[in-house]
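Researcher: I'm comparing several assemblies side by side, and this is the next one on my list. It has 224 residues spread over two chains. Same procedure as the others: predict the full complex and return the structure.
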Amino acid sequence: MLYKYNMYTESEYDHILKALGNSTRRAILDSIKDNPKTTSQLCSLLSELDRCTVMQHLDVLEKADLIIIKHQGKHRWNYINLLPIKEIHDRWIRKYSFEALDVLSKMKKDLE
Amino acid sequence: MLYKYNMYTESEYDHILKALGNSTRRAILDSIKDNPKTTSQLCSLLSELDRCTVMQHLDVLEKADLIIIKHQGKHRWNYINLLPIKEIHDRWIRKYSFEALDVLSKMKKDLE
């Protein structure tokens, strides 16, 4: 390989990106990005899926280090872990200024 | 779905994350993040792969909007496109300050 990154191994990157590469798992992360939710709350939000499927998605997210689970009494709280997402970003973007990318991003939206 | 994001569709997110979910394609992005490279230069760097395989990886990256290709005479120059990576970041992290995440990231590295 041409490049070694130090926080996550390439194999961990595979897990993180595979976990993010599914729209239901992205929707779960969207719904907990501001506040954690219990597994029951997530099952209610994703009512088109059975509980077992939701649990499988949460398991993939946990193994990819994208969520952190805390047990409180009967409840299982799911917190987003932003570090893997930050690492993906920093691997390729860190040195560029965010202001410059914001300008590019706005230009692209204006053009569309 | 619980959330709609406006720059890339969920289907485009699938392509972007699938493209990033392969260590060879990540290595290609690593190698062009500071300077573009021609397809021949990338084939030399990835000498364990045949040219056809490298071209297939570049095709996946281009379809995912992660590289932009410019033709100049006989050369095909491959430029990284950071917008999809920035969008992944902004979808979940934008509102958090980078300073806070940097502290967290350093704490985690110190603990390990």
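Model: For your comparison table: The first helix of chain A runs from residue 10 to 20.
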